[in-house]
Amino acid sequence: MGTTSELQSLDKLVSNSLSGQDLQEFNRIHYGRISNHELEIKKNNILFGNENHFEIAAYKFPANKEETRKPRIVKVGVIQNSIAIPTDQPVTKQRCAIFEKIRKIIETAADEGVNILCLQEAWSMPFAFCTREKQPWCEFAESALEGPSTIFLKEFAVKYGMVIISPILERDEVHGDTIWNTAVVINEMGNTGHPVFETSFGKVAVNICYGRHHPLNWLMFGINGAEIVFNPSATVAGLSEHLWAVEARNAAIANSYFTCAINRVGTEKFPNEFTSGDGKPAHKEFGHFYGSSYVTAPDGSRTPGLSRVMDGLLIAELDLNLCRQIKDKWGFGMTQRLDLYVSSLSKAVNHDYEPQVVPRD
């Protein structure tokens, strides 16, 4: 649902403008490796994606061969999607229309051998939080265990032996009908839960949207042994795009694990005008969700991003042995001072805390 005025892809803009050694040097400096290690995608899936208006890209992150451990290969997939029909349509109709387009992308991911699949934040609804209206948007909230999104995705998890991470707007009926911004993890047996899991394919965690701005979130996932951390998001150009390529990549480097940054794509128009608290006139659009989903390895190398304007499926073949190899190389775990951080933070949470500032005189 992107407009022609939007830049389609920063990565393609650069790659189409450079060639030869210049392009290799750009790749080395920007992506962290001269080759992007593209994986071959089945021709029928490329054709299917073109027919259904979604991009497919696939890359590989190899690790060094070890004598004492076999390679731990896992294929992850991330999906960025626009809404399917206008936001003034009935809630159930909007959700079902999104289901139909996502079904096609999931089936393509399965055909490409994806083991773990993550969707974007609040994937089965418009990103209506920006309107600050309660109705009808709260009607998209659903049970994490028995809601329509979970029921829909369980079918694919079981059919294809796939772990699926489903970020939804949860209606928690057990705790007073509270609404949560939740990620449901559905394993390959069709079971559900929250929010960090040891799966058959590796240890995964989910850092939802705004959590990417907090380094300690990323740190704790690493301390708890995560090997892949997914960051399902919904963020717009002009607000955060200059941060997008930095935060998840930095987290992968600092914590020696893989990160998968997934962003919504498209421009969503709502029936009623609203303001964003920035002094600008009321409007019906929050802004353009710029997609650009990408994957980063523990060594800081990363994939090109998906399109800024199209639905897309990004696949990455990971060797999880790379996590330990990079820990051995950089030694961040040995050089960090968790004991000091704990002591300092324990003091900082007190109201009488005084920052440790050494005066000039």
Count of individual beta strands? 13
Helix- and strand-based class? Answer: alpha/beta
Strand order of the largest sheet: 1-13-2-3-4-5
Query: From the coordinates shown, what is the CATH architecture?
Result: 4-Layer Sandwich
User: How many H/I helices?
Assistant: 10
The number of domains is 1
Unreliable runs: none
Largest sheet: 6 strands, mixed
Question: What's the CATH topology label?
Answer: Nitrilase/N-carbamoyl-D-aminoacid amidohydrolase
Question: Hey, roughly how much beta strand do the residues contain?
Answer: 15-25%
Percent helix, as a range, is 25-40%
* Termini gap: 59 Å
Question: In words, what does this structure look like?
Answer:
Strands 1-13-2-3-4-5 form a 6-stranded mixed β-sheet, with helices on both faces. Strands 6-7-8-9-12 form a 5-stranded mixed β-sheet, covered by helices on one side. The chain is 31% helix and 25% strand. The protein is of the alpha/beta class. The chain is built from 10 helices and 13 strands. The longest helix is centred in the first third of the chain and has 21 residues, at 91-111. The protein has one domain (54-347): Carbon-nitrogen hydrolase (Nitrilase/N-carbamoyl-D-aminoacid amidohydrolase, 4-Layer Sandwich), CATH 3.60.110. Strand 7, helix 6 and strand 8 (228-233) form a beta-alpha-beta unit. Keywords: Hydrolase. It comes from Parnassius mnemosyne. One of its GO terms (molecular function) is beta-ureidopropionase activity. It holds the Pfam family CN_hydrolase. InterPro entries: Aliph_Amidase/BUP (IPR050345), C-N_Hydrolase (IPR003010), C-N_Hydrolase_sf (IPR036526).
